[in-house]
């Protein structure tokens, strides 16, 4: 069985082709295009590449195409992506303007180019479907909640992989099995002490998630990917009064305000330098105060959510860093972990800078482990797509 995983960004198209033998996906090849202006052309190039390198003779070699879709409103989980899913992505594009339109377009193109191949959408919100009502609700009138204004959570595939892999690294295969089968079986009780993990997905888009026994119980992201931590150029959390205040005091229209919050805020807005943390760090090291401010705010927000979830979990067995920023910046991990020895966490500076991924970075006397787990969202999409295909449900 071969599964093609299609990852569509606002200006990019990337793919990975997996062979699935039992429950063990094996990466066959990968590729993609940057600065995409025509998704149809980018997808055609990808299919041509796969054909020419011998991985894909024709459409019959594909069991399905998986998509890491972001937000579908009332549609979540792992589902066959018929035209109703495409419409759901379009209907909620106001909340995920950088993500939903490319995925809706990509689903349409694959439906037309490969009509006999099932399309499977694994929504980023799926990992949070079991969080409590208290963690899901905003303090707004009931009519707002019924209109879909609630905390959905995102980066679900990334945090789910952390839930699985961290359990294995911590010697809790029972919890790993629950996490891996979560979308099939739902949460399951496990014997012994609960396994408490705080997962930090830090990249161009960032979030923190609390995980108990392989199941998410809380997330820093809410209604949209614009929430939570400061993003590369999106605001993150903001007092609701700030929007009408800015409109009045700065003479902005609602459209101008939205543009500034989505495209000109976050690390870019704070630093005035760039939306790329590498450029910001270089500028901060050269003495740029705005760049240093952006780093300080980012670290403060990460620590804020870690602290909130530490309390909610009643402790933390492992603090995990994943995604590009989390995996590649020892200085950031050290800043996030600074001064936490009273909570039982102490990072080892030597291990933090030299140890390979998946090795405990905490000091020998630290009660909490610190792990770097490379992100593997596409693997999760491939595996869940294969499981759904194995369920023999009808495909539109």
If you had to describe this structure to a student in words, what would you say it looks like?
- The structure is a single chain.
- α6 (156-169) packs across α17 (377-390) and α12 packs across α13.
- β7 and β8 (207-212) form a beta hairpin.
- 44% of the residues are buried.
- The protein has two domains: 2-123, 2-Layer Sandwich (Nucleotidyltransferase, domain 5), CATH 3.30.420.40; 171-372, Nucleotidyltransferase, domain 5.
- It starts with a strand and ends in a 6-residue tail after the last helix.
- The longest helix is centred in the C-terminal third of the chain and has 25 residues, at 289-313.
- A six-stranded mixed beta sheet has the order 3-2-1-4-6-5. Strands 9-8-7-10-11 form a five-stranded mixed beta sheet, sandwiched between helices.
- The protein is an alpha/beta fold.
- Mean pLDDT is 93; it is low at 392-396.
- The protein is built from 17 helices and eleven strands.
- 42% of the residues lie in helices and 16% in strands.
Please tag this protein with its features.
396 residues, alpha/beta, Nucleotidyltransferase, domain 5, 2 domains, six-stranded mixed sheet, 11 strands, globular, disordered C terminus
Summarize the structure.
The chain has 396 residues and is α/β, with parallel strands linked by helices. 42% of the residues lie in helices and 16% in strands. It folds into two domains: 2-123, Nucleotidyltransferase, domain 5 (2-Layer Sandwich); 171-372, ATPase, nucleotide binding domain (Nucleotidyltransferase, domain 5, 2-Layer Sandwich), CATH 3.30.420.
């Amino acid at each position: 069985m071969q599964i093609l995983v299609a990852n569509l960004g606002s200006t990019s198209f990337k793919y990975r082709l997996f062979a699935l033998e039992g429950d063990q996906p094996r990466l066959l090849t990968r590729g993609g295009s940057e600065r995409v202006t025509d998704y149809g052309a980018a997808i055609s190039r990808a299919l041509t590449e796969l054909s020419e390198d011998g991985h894909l003779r024709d459409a019959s070699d594909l069991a399905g195409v998986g998509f890491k879709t972001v937000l579908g409103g009332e549609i979540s989980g792992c589902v066959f992506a018929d035209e109703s899913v495409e419409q759901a992505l379009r209907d909620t594009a106001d909340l995920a303007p950088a993500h939903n339109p490319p995925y809706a377009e990509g689903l349409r193109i694959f439906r037309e180019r490969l009509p006999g191949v099932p399309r499977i959408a694994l929504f980023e919100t799926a990992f949070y479907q079991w969080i409590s009502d208290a963690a899901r609700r905003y303090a707004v009138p009931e009519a707002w909640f019924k209109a879909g204004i609630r905390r959905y959570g995102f980066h679900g595939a990334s945090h789910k992989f952390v839930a699985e892999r961290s359990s294995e690294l911590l010697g809790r295969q029972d919890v790993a099995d629950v996490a891996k089968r979560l979308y099939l079986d739902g949460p399951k009780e496990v014997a012994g002490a609960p396994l408490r993990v705080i997962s930090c997905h830090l990249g161009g888009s960032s979030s923190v998630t609390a995980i108990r026994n392989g199941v998410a119980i809380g997330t820093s992201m809410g209604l949209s990917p614009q929430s939570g931590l400061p993003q590369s150029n999106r605001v993150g959390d903001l007092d609701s009064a700030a929007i009408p205040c800015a409109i009045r005091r700065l003479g902005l229209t609602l459209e101008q305000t939205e543009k500034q919050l989505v495209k000109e805020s976050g690390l870019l807005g704070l630093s005035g330098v760039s939306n790329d943390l590498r450029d910001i760090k270089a500028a901060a090291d050269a003495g740029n105060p705005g760049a240093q401010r952006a780093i300080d705010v980012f670290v403060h927000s990460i620590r804020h959510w870690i602290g909130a979830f530490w309390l909610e979990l009643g402790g933390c067995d492992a603090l995990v860093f994943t995604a590009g920023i989390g995996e590649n910046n020892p200085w950031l991990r050290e800043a996030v972990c600074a001064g936490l020895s009273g909570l039982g966490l102490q990072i080892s500076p030597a291990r933090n800078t030299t140890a390979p991924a998946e090795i405990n970075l905490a000091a020998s006397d630290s009660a909490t482990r610190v792990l770097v787990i490379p992100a593997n969202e596409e693997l999760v999409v491939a595996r869940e797509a294969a499981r759904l295909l194995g369920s023999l449900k009808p495909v539109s």
